Amino acid sequence: MTVRTATPTGGWKLALSIAVVCAAIATPALAAPAQPSPPANNGEAKARAQVLLNEGTTAYGHGDYATALEKFTAAYRIFPSPKLWFNIGQANRDLGRPVEAVAAFDRFLREASDAPTETVSEARRSAAELKARLGQIKVTCPTDGADVTVDGKQIGSTPLGEMVWTTPGRHQVAVQRAGFSPAIEDVVVDAGKTAALRVDLRPIDLRPANGAGGANAIGGAPGAPARKPVYRRPWFWVAAGAVVAAGVGAAILVSNHESSGLVTTLGVKQAF
User: Fold this and answer.
1) d(CA 126, CA 264)
2) Is 139 helix (H, G, I), strand (E, B) or coil?
3) Closest to 198 (Cα-Cα) out of 160, 154, 243, 152
4) What does the alpha-carbon distance between residue 93 and residue 152 come to, in Å, rounded to a whole number?
5) What is d(CA 93, CA 205) in angstroms, rounded to the nearest whole number?
6) pLDDT, tens only, 154-213
7) In angstroms, rounded to a whole number, what is the distance separating the alpha carbons of residues 184 and 151?
8) Contact of 195 with 188, CB cutoff 8 Å
9) Which residues contact 80 (CB under 8 A, 6 or more apart)?
10) Spatial separation of the C-alpha atoms in residues 221 and 199, rounded to whole Å
């Protein structure tokens, strides 16, 4: 049961939000299918996480969003409640990290099935406003299992199930997999639009350069017979014999060269 109390103007929504979440402390959050399992000592882990959550909430209220994010993230590692993704999303948003904020809000909406209605609405609103300022990159690659990074940050492996949210501007996309030459592409993203990028990886030819059965030498034309070494040619021995017969010493040198800012209406949550 939620009890509304009289609060100063502009603060009743924050008080309502805290009351709603605090009322849920006695009831554990529903576990989402992909949610990692909490430690065996569930009560102790939850208590430790609650302390960190309270510290993060205090820091957030003082405008210290970096410390708040650190505390919220640490709390999630100890007790992975999906509701904490809302706090993590708000801290990232107010730190000017819209991509990370969108990812957190989306995860909160997917996993926090028992979150209060007001919190769900706030997360949806914040995510929608952030996404309107961002763009997306759609990376397709016929080679499955290739690692994809955007500006050096690991995104996932092909095939990517979702498009990548990113800030407008130029970004560098790298796709690589063992046995293939890595591909690096630049892509320009506009706000509210999707930039499509197809990457075709080329296999690396690991066959020996000079194989048995008349294989081509490095750089040789396809189908052309391999050249015989100079010492296997008849004229070489004829010339060498003539030199010996004439009593003239000779030296033969053989060398090979290889070519080588939004304002929240609810505030962060203070409980699970």
Assistant:
1) 8
2) strand
3) 160
4) 21
5) 47
6) 999 999 988 999 999 999 999 999 999 999 999 999 999 999 999 999 999 877 766 554
7) 10
8) yes
9) 35, 36, 38
10) 29
Query: Which positions ≥6 away from 146 have C-beta within 8 Å?
Result: 157, 158, 175, 176, 177, 180, 199, 201
- DSSP secondary structure string for all residues of 48-65: HHHHHHHHHHHHHHTT-H
Scan for tokens 């996404």, then name that residue. Answer: 131
Give every CB contact of residue 2 below 8 A, 6+ residues apart in sequence: 16, 19, 20, 23
What's the one-letter identity of residue 145?
G
pLDDT of 9-67, one tens digit each? 333 333 334 333 333 333 333 233 344 544 546 889 999 999 999 999 999 999 999 99
- Which distant-in-sequence residues (6+ apart) come within 8 Å of 61 by Cβ? 267
What is the residue whose two structure tokens read 């294989």?
Answer: 215
**DSSP class of residue 23?**
T
